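Onboarding guide, step 5: your first structure request.
Type a short instruction followed by the sequence, for example:

Predict the 3D structure of this protein.
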Amino acid sequence: MSSQASRDRVERITEEALLRLPEPLRSAAEELLITVSHAAGGDLYGEFQGLPKGVEPGLGDPPPTITIYSETLLADFPQEQELRREVRRTLAHEIGHYLGLSEEELHARGLE
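The system replies with structure tokens like these:
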């Protein structure tokens, strides 16, 4: 599969995963800018940047954003089912950060 086709695949899987998230994650996702980066994320599959929900932004603060790193995901999860599972898990984890959950709280909820 070409590199572009693989990237398109991650974008499609991300869009599908967003539609299938349970509440309140799905509603929270609608408040975020979610992008798929075609660069490697080092050891990250995704990353939340910005202020958590409920924190008022100051002038110049960027919007809360989740970046999904397609190259890292594709390298670590070549099988379709595994890739789908990890994209969904990564989205839920990063949305959890937006909702103000710590790593410990995410772990306790099975979103590590």
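Each response can be followed by summary notes, for example: The chain has a mean pLDDT of 91.
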